[in-house]
Amino acid sequence: MYDKLAADLAALPALLDAARAQAGELLAGLDDRPVAGRPGAGRAPLPIEGAGARAALAEFARRWAPGLSGSAGPRYLGLVTGGATPAALAGDWLTAAADQNAASSVDSCAAGLEHETVGWLAQLFGLGPEFSGAFVSGATMSTVVGLAIGREWAGERLGVRVADEGFAALGPVEVLSGAAHASVGKAMAMLGFGRSARQQVPLQPGREAVDVAALDRRLGALGGRPAIVVANAGTVDTVDFDDLRAIAGLKRRHDFWLHVDAAFGGFAALSPEHAALVDGLDRADSVCVDLHKWLNVPYDSAVQFSRRLDLQTRVFQSSAAYLGEPGEDPDFIHRTPESSRRLRALAAWCTLAAYGREGHREIVERCVANARDLGSRLSGSPRWRLLAPVRLNVVCFTLAEDPMPERIGAVVRAVAAGGETSLTPTVHAGVPALRAAFSNWRTETADVGRIFTALDSAGA
Ligand SMILES: *Cc1c(COP(=O)(O)O)cnc(C)c1O
Q1: Most Cβ neighbours (<10 Å): which of 145, 225, 378, 460?
Q2: Which residues are CB-neighbours of 195 under 8 A, at least 6 positions away?
Q3: Shared domain check, 132 and 68
């Protein structure tokens, strides 16, 4: 054995303790570290002999750790960024320690644990036993899986096995959506629909929710050709929700696959006060939910659900003598784009086992309360103006006067430089704006006060 490997093996328990201590320092420093990170400086040459794990950890601490952001902490409001609950973090460490390949169920319980976790998640989101699910790396991949099954379903309608014969045998398939997330275009490009096959359906006035009557007309204009509808359950700017039940009702008249992007909005289901926003989610054909956002497990983790495991397996099966036939209950290798895959479910399993539905409901509701708190502080100030009501966990706002892109950019930079918080700029309904997304379990009322103070001085 290579000498440095042998030395690390001999010292493994102490090495793991050292890594734990280093992780502890990262977490303890969250309150002081600037919330926005910074790019690293320079590239070191490839190590030829290596320095051993201790020295590698020290070099990481010296060269890279100082540039990390505070995205795991309570005041990072950029994109939609979750933290990692204590149990999720511990589960993720154990995932690496056990280093299982959850591709198959042949030689370990890894797949069984994933099935149990997917079942728990389905129950959280109100999805019945007709849905199967699997872990993927993020909502984008979850949407890739959903649209791939939708593509196969359209082929089934027209007598084409797309996975075998190719998209050319099928012809174009329209994807209709209101305020679709950018990941839908990415998925369409990957899958061969082409980005331009997306039809933007009109929205309700002043909203990001689709105009269902307009969708009805667009579907009618397809002349019976099967299509895919991507419904949005939680848009990133104003967290608006399509009327999922009404959209599903259109199936009585039109032939379409219904994919719901519930990347973070799906978590509304955990809160009785907000569950009506996702009413009808169980009528979808496929559903995408991110877990590294509002479940607060470490990157990267999401779940995909669908009700046509047969078509899913047709697309994603990986055939070889040593892998066996997919059969009725196919291994995970036959369900998603990945073949080998980590036991990504364990972090989600741990956080659900540790805090249960009630603990995660509390996180969701506290995030919503924090967003409302920031929203009311902003609307109480003459400097700011809300661009939408705070429907869930995101505040979309702008300067009350003269919200030019340069001024919004200057606010974002000033806030980041101050180190107290980090936000993402956007343009909503043509107006340059800011969005503050609350999805971290650590955030408390006192943090909202610090965030507002930092914002208000940056906007002055
Ligand atoms: C974040 C997000 C996505 C993409 O998720 P990734 O995890 O980054 O792949 C898709 N849709 C919505 C609504 C999102 O918020």
Answers
A1: 145
A2: 185, 188, 189
A3: no
Of 295, 311, 341, which one is at a domain's C-terminal end? 341
CB of 371 closer than 8 Å to CB of 393: yes
Q: Which of 144, 261, 290 to mutate to test the pocket of ligand 1 (most atoms within 8 A of CB)?
A: 290
Return d(Cα 424, Cα 412) in angstroms, integer.
Answer: 7
- Quick: pLDDT tens for 22-63: 999 999 999 888 898 888 778 999 999 999 999 999 999 999
Is the CB of residue 231 less than 8 Å from the CB of residue 210?
yes
Supply the residue whose CA is at minimum distance from atom 5 of ligand 1.
139
Q: Which domain holds residue 426?
A: 28-85+356-460
Q: How far apart are CA 446 and CA 453, in angstroms?
A: 11
Identify whether residues 299 and 163 lie together within a single domain.
Answer: yes
Kindly report the pTM of this predicted structure.
0.97
**Pocket-testing residue among 183, 232, 235, 238, ligand 1, by greatest number of atoms within 8 A of Cβ:** 183
Name all residues whose Cβ lies below 6 A of ligand 1: 80, 138-140, 181, 183, 234, 236, 261, 263-264, 290, 302
The tally of domains found in the chain comes to: 2
Query: Is the same domain home to 330 and 372?
Result: no
Distance 239 CA to ligand 1 centre (A): 12
Q: What is the pLDDT of residue 421?
A: 93
Decide which of 341, 368, 391 is a domain's last residue. 341
What CATH number should be reported for the domain holding residue 460? 3.90.1150.170
Structure tokens at 343: 């036991």
Indicate if 195 and 160 belong to the same structural domain: yes
- Protein residue with least CA distance to atom 3, ligand 1: 139
Angle between helices 139-158 and 182-191 (to 10 degrees): 50
| Residue 105, pLDDT score | 83
Altogether, the residues listed in the chain come to a count of 460
